[in-house]
């Protein structure tokens, strides 16, 4: 499946591993890897990543967040993704270099990390994401295409925000 906006400076790969043949309780693990070259400083890119309260404005699969305090290593927050509320904790917080978090619910667990490498003329962003039990959530709450494209869209939108470019309609 080719993304409708492929070729906009974002690359990604997805690997799915199915762990169960039980049709009533499908279990799977998806691991994603994406990269983008962003014409903005690592500080500018990092500022968007750690502004968790604004994720619903630009991260396609995020519907809502609740951040009781500031984002820092070990802080807890809530994020609603794919129609599921996850309790999350920041597990990696290295300013302008790396940001990662783990979220979980009864139906889904997610690990996501963003690695920022300064390069001319900006930042090489490496995004890694592992979702466990997503198939169960997918079948119940979200269209398959939305989830398939959401990871690449997140990188594309991060690139647009950090570069100050208006998103294409």
Characterise this structure.
This protein has four helices and eight strands. The protein has 169 residues and is an alpha+beta fold. It has an eight-stranded antiparallel β-sheet. Strand 5 (84-94) and strand 6 (98-104) form a beta hairpin. Helix 1 crosses helix 4 (144-163). The radius of gyration is 16 Å and the shape is globular.
In short:
This protein is of the alpha+beta class. The chain has four helices and eight strands, in the order ββααββββββαα. An eight-stranded antiparallel sheet has the order 1-2-8-7-6-5-4-3.
**Order of strands across the main sheet:** 1-2-8-7-6-5-4-3
**DSSP helical segment count:** 4
Judged by helices, strands and strand pairing, the structural class is alpha+beta
| Overall pLDDT confidence | 81
Describe the secondary structure blueprint for this structure:
Blueprint: E1 10-18, E2 28-38, H1 42-49, H2 55-58, E3 62-66, E4 76-81, E5 84-94, E6 98-104, E7 109-119, E8 122-132, H3 134-141, H4 144-163
Antiparallel strand pairs: 1-2, 2-8, 3-4, 4-5, 5-6, 6-7, 7-8
Helix pairs in contact: 1-4
Properties at a glance:
8-stranded antiparallel beta sheet; disordered N terminus
